[in-house]
Amino acid sequence: MTQISKFLAATAIASSLLLAPAFAADTIKIGVAGPYTGANATFGEQVYNGVSTYVNEVNAAGGINGKQVELVKGDDACEPKQAVAVANRFVDQDKVQAVIGHFCSSSTIPASEIYNDAGILEMTPSSTNPTVTDRGFDNLFRGCGRDDQQAVVAAGFILDTLKRDKVALIHDKDTYGQGLVDAVKKTMEERGVQPVLYEGLTRGERDFNALVTKIKSTGANAVYFGGLIPEGGPLVRQLKEQGVDVVFVTGDAFAQTELVAAAGGPANLKDVYYSATPDPLADPSTKGVQDALTKAGVTPANYVLYGYANAQAVVAALKAGEELDAQAAWLRANTVDSAIGKITWDEKGDIKDFKFVFYNFDDKGTPVLVK
Amino acid sequence: MDVYILIQQLFNGITLGTIYGLIAVGYTMVYGVIRMINFAHGDVYMVSAYIAAITLAVLTFFGIQSVPFALISVLVITCAITALYGWAIERVAYRPLRGSTKLAPLISAIGISLMLQSYVQIAQGARDQGVPTLISGAFRFGDGVHFAQITYMQTVILFASLIAMGILTYVINHTRIGRECRAVQQNIRISAVLGVNTDRIISTVFVIGAATAAVGGVLVTFNYGSFNFFIGFVMGIKAFTAAVLGGIGSLPGAVLGGVLLGLTEALFAGYVSTDYKDVFAFALLIILLFFRPYGLLGRPEIQKV
After folding, report:
1. I need a labelling partner for B206 at 20 to 30 A (CA). Which of A35, A132, A204, B188 fits?
2. From its phi and psi, is residue A93 left (phi > 0), alpha (psi between -120 and 50) or beta?
């Protein structure tokens, strides 16, 4: 008896293994690549949550042209080498038809070479480095802004709105952070303003007191920081602790609620400004999406909405045809009414007229739009 | 040159270096006793930061307002729980491999390191967490514009580290457990023959190492205020460097190495470049190891054939 049941069980398992690929052929696979482990894991999770919420809606409504959508996770931990491995796996093993990702610019740049060779549609929800789309790949689209758009706005904001001329530029030596700072530097130099300091800190560290003392010794009255919260939060706090009187301006990576904790409370955020897209969470037209997210058990955060919006664009493009040419042509010709507003793309694959605005913080640490 | 800036950089370096030293103690003691580098040590420190924050939250919940009382009870509770982690890790991951090749416990240590990181990431989330500023304010020297300052929290760090190191030195040099530790460090087999319970001593060393890392974790958490599951990595590497610089196996060496590393980083970052401070610190380490292969205070191991 046991022999027979064992045999039956084995047969069942074997046949299910045989059936699996047959089912898989009837689905459309979308790879979602980003950091699910490592220091930036929180962003990867946010993007994935946004994408999966939208894809569940699509599947419930019948999928793409009758086919169900299946998501494949690829963890690059924001490391370029791992990103290439993920890209190869997506192309060779998983045979995905589109990719949403990667997250960090430093991962998107090498991985996109592989998607370009394989002719797979890729859209990044967050890689803002100019190089991403400047290489002329026809398969690569950006579902977010560009650093140089952001930098021009930031340089103007520091010099004209805040009226500060002694600017210390600090970056985290990563593609996003340094790219942003280099673009700000270039814009400032074009206007004849030399930065008083240009330095890179080490990611993963918490003690920037030496750097803070150095900023103080240069007599800077503004700091522009290109980097992420794990380093930016302590930097803000240590500037306050050492009593350095500067305004702190940074990029869209600061648009996260955890900043308040990382910077040691709302009091430290008094003179902190960050540039970002007009907050999709504050836009009344995104209320429907936010409700859908909350209903699906996902807290609507910034990159959740980007993930959702990118999924909307990619699914719409996949509906337009099975070939990359048709998909790319559709994106270049049409407008997507997305979770982050109406978006259209130019020839390079960048979003047209991407707007940046500045936020400051109130007494409770809530971002407030700077008029 | 502004002398206040120099004094400030010295303060910055010494505070940072003291913390490196506290974490380095764990590396150096474990290496001294079982000749193994405990790569999970940085993550034990990371776990202690979380325990400290949770303990503080619980204390606040029960309405405890007194800052010194909160600080001391957080320190004690965190040390106790982290020590338990140290004990358990040794028991689960290293003791079963003691008789095998030298590489086996090393790999097992890396495994524990990854496990602790993933566990904290899943249990606590990947986001940066923070604790509010408990002690604010600073001693300032100089006039209103040019001044050097040492915050009250930095003063606490220096004193707490001094006390912790003092207790540790006393335990190692003047108690029975300390004597047994030194005996095991010199020769594990002969100590066993002479009646020292070597397994218990090795456990004790892990417990002490974890507890000093917890002191570091509590101080760092209250000083920098924010942490995530990944902070153990960089701190682990820096503290390990400090241990090697001072002479791995040597307790005063760990502290000396830590302070030197902290000072080097602060002065190089302050006067030359933040970008290259790590490059410079490690280059210095390599040059030093050319001349003193066993670190500043390390003693050469004589292999008897």
Report:
1. A204
2. alpha
